[in-house]
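Forwarding the complex inputs:
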Amino acid sequence: MNPAPEIATATAAADGMLPEVWRVDRVRRETHDTFTLELGPERPGSERAFEPGQFNMLYVFGVGEVPISISGDPRRRDRVVHTTRAVGRVTNVMSGLKTGGRIGLRGPYGTPWPVAAAQGRDVVLVAGGIGLAPLRPALYAILHRRNDFRNVVLLYGTRSPGDILFRQELERWRARFDLDVHVTVDRGAPSWKGNVGVVTTLVQKAPFDPRNAVAFICGPEVMIRFTAAELQRRGVPLDDVHISMERNMKCGIGLCGHCQLAGVFVCRDGPVFPYSRVADLVTQWEV
Amino acid sequence: MARPEIFFPAVSWIRLGGLMPGPGAIAPRPAALAAALLAQADLERLIQLLARDHRVIAPVVRDGAVVCDEIRTAGEIAFGAVTEQAPARYRMTMPGDHAARWPTGPPATPWKRVLHPSELTIWRAVRRDGRLVFEPIDSGPPRRLALVGVRPCDLAAIGRLDAPLRDGPWPDAAYAARRRGMFVLAVQCTEPCGTCFCASMGTGPDAGPGADLVLTELDGAGPARSLLEARTTAGAAMVVALGAAEAPEDAADEAHLAVDRARARMGRALDTSQLPARLLAHFEHPRWETVAKKCLTCGNCTFACPTCFCTTVEDRLDLAGETAARLRRWDTCFSVDFSYMHGGSVRLSPRSRYRQWLTHKLATWHEQFGTSGCVGCGRCITWCPVGIDITLEAAAVADTAPRTGPTRRTGAHP
Amino acid sequence: MKTLEQLLAEHPFFSGLAPDHLKLFAGCAVTLRVDSGEFLFREGELARSFFVVRHGSIAITSVTPQEGLVTIQTLDEGDILGWSWLLPPYRWHFGARALEPAALISLDATCVRTKCEHDHEFGYEIMRRFAQVMASRLEATHLQLMNVYESRT
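Prediction (whole assembly, three chains):
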């Protein structure tokens, strides 16, 4: 077939793949390999609401586009905050962006943490490593309406004390009487006075009622699986356990096929799933 | 001048509009809104009528193969071409006795090349004075598309592509633009190829929903003649405009019979009863390993497949660093990079990648879109360089008696 | 003032234990307090007892030439500390040091082992409970080895 010229016309169809321009307001280093981007809309009226657990596709001029979960406060529509690790080409360039720079943004996409469904119940948030970032908006939403929930517990594990995200904020949260925060590391430095052990070991003693609790888990898949198993052992039904999945994504809107996992597109049908829906998939090899 | 419509009077077209098979509707034998007997000369007029406000795409001969491309006259259509198709084998000949007939089997290239181009620049980003502007540069073809000579399997394939690319919450802009106002003339199959198995997949040899006009070649002595049936008001209008000869009463039965005979002559077959469940029950079947030893993971099957829709994107920067373009191109789940996440690829082994492709096509597609992702066109068999046959692989896995004990585990076990 | 039997019965490790078995344990038990920084035992020492953590936080430690004293795991209220006393050569493989003032119950190893030999039903009950502790520690260790937090972006 001849490569027929594809000609532009004036009337552009609504294109889910076309980013909007956002302004970089601040780039903050979090740990040795993570950073937080604060973005503001370039055009007034571009402000957008998002729900905790959703992600945006962020485009760095000429380099590429990556899905990054939103880590900021869902009540702030004029400011979108993302926290991620600088691990690939795009995120490495992104970490070097300067205040005043421009970035392309599409979103928000994906399913949210079912915060409303947790009302009147205990909420257990379990995060591993950078997995605290996508959970933070849920915690903001919960703390904003703290009285709507019973016990709220945050269990957070990282490799080492140096990998702990949002340290000062964790300290502030820990000082609250209406929030139980437990942080643990795999390997403590000599100066580390806190818990040592994987995050799954915190589940059994955390103060919540397994019969009336909703759990949100975010972290690597292995950590998710073992945490879910601990929650199940404690008596939490798997339908009340929600997890955030990660897969390769190129479009974020169910078109490119990369994140297809059995009967779902992780970008569109997830990233947040009831664990009962994906438990069979994450325990199999190379699905 | 012959009467344009036979089975229904012209006045009832509008009323009958309600019978039009909508997307996804299952019509065992859709009712024709109008029908005519078509001679070869009529076809040329049909193409000219369509070409007035459509870009007409039809099967043509290029480099010894039948492919889909733009035509200006009916003379460019690959009439007379016979394609011999077998695992890893495609041979096109022009035997004289076939001269006026439509090329046999589906074209080598899938129609998705027209609707979902293999490579497309979807937008441009321009950076100047610290500002950034995104410009959409593809809004579809300047003229509506008319696909002429679409085999029933490929007609079904368009419906399968509609589900992810047009009918989801975020339509693919480029696809939707090409699909909008598209006209389709389907040609029912009377001579299946060696790799055809549309009858098993329920997509042929008769044309299902989605066509405006359905053509069936009729046998018999004398000049070639075909039955042309309108399935939509647009198709019916075309029949009227054409002013072709009245179809004799028995033409529809004759056409039906010819297509039915083809049903019995499929080159291949696949037992589709409970197929998704039977495949997924054998996720660890040794056959995946056996086929992976043969598979080159080249992705040919995914490019030849009329329903594989996966794409990737590439961002290009001009030398001045002022303009960046986003290129979208077909991708294949057979590449290691396809499932890459930080730390590694999810599907590293060829075994898992073949399994992913086959089970998505034949099993999990049902979960996602309510249909099979396979239409039985046989292209993946013909164009596989090592001749892997999806019908044999699926059957080898699915026909195995269920294993005792659980095949899928729940929860984590150390 | 609670009796040792009462204190033991409150601890999750002993929950559901038959009263006479609890009595056997109590016969080997003494309460113990340690200050922050104090070692309960050090790597290589004879394992003369094991401990029930009532309050406070205890670090399981090892010494490396590069990092000095390394914390491998922390234990706190409700945890059980030490199983080197169960199996020969009855020597601690790691050290244990209080991270903050802690209250514990110490159980004499020889005393408990002797009772196990005498009363196999009692011995089986102890072994079953320690197997549970060891299994969950082993699972946690597997996860630590897998470096599970690193893979997510």
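Chain C touches chain A at residues 57, 59-60, 67-74, 76-78, 99, 136, 139-140, 143-144, 146-153 (CB under 8 Å).
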